[in-house]
Amino acid sequence: MKKEFSTYSVIPTEVMLSEKISSTAKIVYGIISSLTNEKGYCWASNKYIGDLLKLSESQVSRVISELVEQELIISDIECNYKRKIQLMIKMGGYAKTARGVRKNSKGGTQKQQDNNIKEYYNNNIDTAKQSFADTEEPLIKPSVEPIEHSKEIQEILNLFYEINPTLNFGNKTQRKAAEDLINKFGFEKTINTVKFSNSIQGKRYAPTITTPLELKNNLSKLMIYYKREQEPDKGVVPDFQF
């Protein structure tokens, strides 16, 4: 992508003065505003934006998630695994894109709910922890034949993308690992387990899990960490079988 911009960027006063939005996010919003002026959307990658602002891809990923959470942009992963970014404009309790597609700012459209990279982080992390803790219980085999959960797999990958912007959405091994987790634990429990795993990355003793395959292969280590966190004064936690 060539570094070609519109001649101006628009940052609303509400955004500029907001204490809920970081200074870096405001600058990135301005860059996105410039890139989307012509068509109402852009395909800017984390690397592209990072190169412009001297930020790492992971830093840009966190900022994009912040802007999504504040309902300032929509970040969709298209069928060809490219990210499409659109600005959101809030008017009278509703949000709409720059091209006028109205969306309820409190609920959003189903597509927005399905594709926003950080949508599920709006839930309380305690819910994620409790759901993850439930995986310690004996597992019941699915009552039906496993099927391909394409939309659910996409949401799992979206969550991992937030901490791992190099994740390849088309990788068959990663998609199969996500499908296996859904078939074994159910979609809701898998989603909450991913959220819990993402929330502890970089912490002491936490296993490194940045892809569905790493999650599948490190569930026991993740549970040991969870128990250590819940029972810090009880020493080493015994392992168990999944």
Which band does the percent of strand residues land in?
5-15%
* Structure annotation, total helices: 11
Distance between the termini: 46 Å
**The CATH H-level homologous superfamily of the largest domain:** Winged helix-like DNA-binding domain superfamily/Winged helix DNA-binding domain
Number of strands: 4
Q: What is the chain-wise order of helices and strands?
A: HHHHEEEEHHHHHHH
**Poorly predicted sequence stretches spanning 5 or more consecutive residues:** 99-125, 135-148, 234-242
The overall pLDDT, averaged over residues, is 74
- Report the top-level CATH class of the largest domain: Mainly Alpha
* Structural class computed from helices and strand pairing: alpha+beta
Could you please say which CATH topology of the largest domain applies here? Answer: Arc Repressor Mutant, subunit A
The proportion of residues forming helix, as a percent range, comes to 40-55%
